[in-house]
C-alpha cells in the first residue's frame, strides 16, 4: 500500500510538471456579414433591443481607434493570424468558437435563418483551415423551429460542429416556451449541448438596466441568463427532456449561489400548490443536465463553490475571448488550489467529454 501511495504521488507530480492541454470553451467570433446586418438593424431600430447600446453600436459603429471596443471588433472578425498568435502566447491549444451576442436571434425569422446558415458555413471553413486549433458551436433561428432543427442537423452531421449556441431570449421568449419544443427535441436527439449564453435583458425586464450601464456584463448579462436557466428548470423542461444538456458560462450565472434557496422554495411551492411538482430538486437537475464554464470569472472563492455545487466533472475552462485576457484566464486555473487531476479536468478533459472533441 505504501509503495502504491508513493507511486501515486510521483505520478501526480509528473502530471503537474507536464504541459497540460488547454481547451477554451466560450470564445466569441463574428462575421463581416453579421456585423453589417447588426448595424443596419441598430440604425433603423435603435430602441428595439438593449443589445444595441450595450454592444452593437459601441463595437461595430466606428469605435474610437485604440479603444477596447475597437480591439473587440478587430479580434471578433479575425479567426486566423491574430487569434492564433494570442492563443500561442498564452499557451491555449484549442478554442471552441461561438458567434457573439446577439447572434442571429435579433432578426426576423427568415433573415435569421439565412444568417445562421452563412455564419455556420463561415465557422466550419475556419475550423477546416485549423482543425487542431478550433472547434465550434452552431447558431440557428429558434423563432423558426422547422428551419432551426434542419440547420441543427446540418451543422452537426454535415459541418461537424460540436453543439449549439443560443444567445438567450428570442423575441423576448425563453426556451421553456412550448413553441421551442422542436429545438430542445433536436438537441437531445443529436446529443449535443446548448450553450446558453447571456445577452442584454429582454424588453420585458430591460427598464431598470438602462441606467448606469447595467445592461451588459457588469450585471444584466448574468441576471438575464440565470433567469433563463431557472425558467427552464422550474417549468419542467428537464423532466420532458431528461438527456438535454445546457452549458452556462461565467461560473453558472449565479445559480450555484442560489441553489440551496431554489431547492427550498421549489419544494415549498410544490407542496402548497403554487408550482407543479418536479421529479427532481433544482440542484439535482443542475448536476445532471448542466455544465458550467469559468468564462470571464477568475475568483478562487467562486470556483470552490461551483466545484461543490456542480461537481468537478461539470466544470470547463473558458476565457471569454476577446472580451477577457487569455493569459489571465490561464494564470487563474494554473494558480488555483486544485489537484493535478482536477486541473486537467477543468482545462481539457471535461470539454473533450461534453463536446466530444478529438
From TrEMBL:
Cited InterPro entries: ACMSD, Amidohydro-rel, Metal_Hydrolase
Gene Ontology molecular-function annotations: carboxy-lyase activity; hydrolase activity
One cellular-component annotation, GO: cytosol
Gene3D superfamilies (UniProt xref): Metal-dependent hydrolases
Pfam family, one: Amidohydro_2
Domain Amidohydrolase-related: 82-357
The keyword Hydrolase belongs to this UniProt entry's keyword annotation: yes
Coiled-coil ranges (or none): none
Keywords: Hydrolase, Lyase
Signal peptide: none
GO biological process: secondary metabolic process
Protein name per Swiss-Prot or TrEMBL: Amidohydrolase 2
Amino acid at each position: 500500500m505504501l509503495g502504491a501511495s508513493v507511486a501515486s504521488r510521483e505520478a501526480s507530480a509528473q502530471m503537474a510538471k507536464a504541459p497540460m492541454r488547454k481547451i477554451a470553451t466560450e470564445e466569441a467570433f463574428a462575421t463581416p456579414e453579421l456585423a453589417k446586418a447588426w448595424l443596419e438593424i441598430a440604425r433603423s431600430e435603435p430602441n428595439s433591443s438593449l443589445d444595441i447600446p450595450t454592444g452593437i453600436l459601441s463595437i461595430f459603429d466606428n469605435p474610437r481607434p485604440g479603444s477596447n471596443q475597437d480591439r473587440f471588433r478587430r479580434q471578433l472578425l479575425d479567426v486566423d493570424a491574430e487569434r492564433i498568435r494570442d492563443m500561442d502566447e498564452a499557451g491555449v491549444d484549442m478554442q471552441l468558437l461561438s458567434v457573439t451576442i446577439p447572434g442571429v436571434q435579433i432578426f426576423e425569422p427568415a433573415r435569421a435563418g439565412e444568417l445562421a446558415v452563412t455564419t455556420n458555413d463561415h465557422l466550419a471553413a475556419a475550423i477546416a483551415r485549423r482543425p487542431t486549433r478550433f472547434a465550434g458551436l452552431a447558431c440557428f433561428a429558434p423563432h423558426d423551429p422547422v428551419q432551426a432543427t434542419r440547420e441543427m442537423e446540418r451543422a452537426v452531421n454535415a459541418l461537424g460542429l460540436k453543439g449549439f449556441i443560443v444567445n438567450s431570449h428570442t423575441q423576448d421568449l425563453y426556451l421553456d416556451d412550448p413553441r421551442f419544443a422542436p429545438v430542445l427535441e433536436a438537441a437531445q436527439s443529436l446529443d449535443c449541448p446548448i450553450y446558453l449564453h447571456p445577452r442584454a435583458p429582454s424588453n420585458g425586464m430591460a427598464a431598470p438596466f438602462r441606467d448606469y450601464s447595467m445592461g451588459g456584463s457588469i450585471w444584466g448579462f448574468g441576471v438575464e441568463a440565470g433567469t433563463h436557466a431557472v425558467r427552464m428548470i422550474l417549468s419542467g423542461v428537464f423532466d420532458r427532456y431528461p438527456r438535454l444538456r445546457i452549458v452556462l458560462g461565467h461560473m453558472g450565472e449565479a445559480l450555484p449561489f442560489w441553489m440551496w434557496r431554489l431547492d427550498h422554495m421549489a419544494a415549498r411551492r410544490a407542496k402548497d400548490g403554487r408550482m407543479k411538482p418536479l421529479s427532481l430538486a433544482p440542484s439535482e437537475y443542475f448536476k445532471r443536465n448542466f455544465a458550467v464554464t469559468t468564462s470571464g470569472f477568475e475568483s478562487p472563492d467562486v470556483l470552490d463553490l461551483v466545484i461543490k455545487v456542480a461537481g468537478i466533472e461539470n466544470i470547463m475552462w473558458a476565457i471569454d475571448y476577446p472580451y477577457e485576457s487569455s493569459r489571465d484566464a490561464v494564470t487563474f486555473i494554473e494558480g488555483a488550489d486544485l489537484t493535478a487531476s482536477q486541473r486537467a479536468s477543468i482545462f481539457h478533459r471535461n470539454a473533450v467529454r461534453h463536446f466530444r472533441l478529438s
